[in-house]
């Protein structure tokens, strides 16, 4: 406005028995500092205060997108196999560009086949192979203690938490053992273990 600027560092707030204060520094945490884009004096923001207007700009922290997966639950295996049989297979590759072009073709073909026969869904824990009815029941029982904390004793909460953790652990172990057994019989499943 029309008032003159006070000298830099002049006390702007007297705090009695505590140390007087003035604003001359901007502190930024280490995580935020890595996202700092700009720290500069911005004359356009001056409203006649005794401090220089300093503008700090940070990069936005964008939320990570959840990975989409394909659900083949309702796909007809015979129709998928029929569609896969239509893939074009060249007789020979002569150049690196031909190999790269074919890789792009295959990627597009597989995506088209997946879109035609599968259903894209967002991943969640219930889509895991180890998620069983017993796990769901134990998880729901523990969630009930979280929704209504006064209704359950500390011992009941501890017991339900233990049961949930135990069911998840057993289900994951059983799923892994089953995968190992199937991979021993069908070597094409080995890629799932990588």
TrEMBL record:
<protein>
    <recommendedName>
        <fullName>Endonuclease/exonuclease/phosphatase domain-containing protein</fullName>
    </recommendedName>
</protein>
């Amino acid at each position: 406005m029309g008032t003159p600027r006070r000298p830099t560092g002049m006390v702007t707030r007297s705090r009695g028995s505590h140390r007087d204060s003035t604003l001359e520094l901007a502190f930024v945490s280490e995580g935020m500092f890595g996202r700092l884009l700009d720290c500069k004096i911005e004359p356009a923001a001056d409203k006649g205060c005794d401090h220089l207007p300093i503008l700090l700009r940070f990069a936005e922290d964008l939320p990570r997108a959840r990975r989409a997966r394909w659900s083949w639950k309702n796909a007809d295996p015979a129709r998928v196999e029929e569609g896969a049989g239509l893939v074009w297979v060249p007789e020979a590759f002569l150049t690196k560009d031909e190999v790269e072009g074919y890789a792009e073709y295959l990627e597009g073909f597989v995506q088209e086949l997946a879109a035609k026969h599968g259903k894209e869904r967002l991943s969640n824990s219930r889509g895991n192979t180890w998620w069983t009815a017993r796990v769901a029941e134990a998880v729901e029982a523990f969630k009930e203690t979280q929704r209504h904390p006064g209704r359950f004793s500390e011992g009941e909460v501890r017991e339900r938490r233990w049961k949930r953790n135990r069911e998840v652990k057993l289900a994951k172990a059983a799923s892994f053992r089953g995968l190992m057994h199937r991979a021993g019989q069908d070597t094409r499943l080995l890629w799932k273990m990588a």
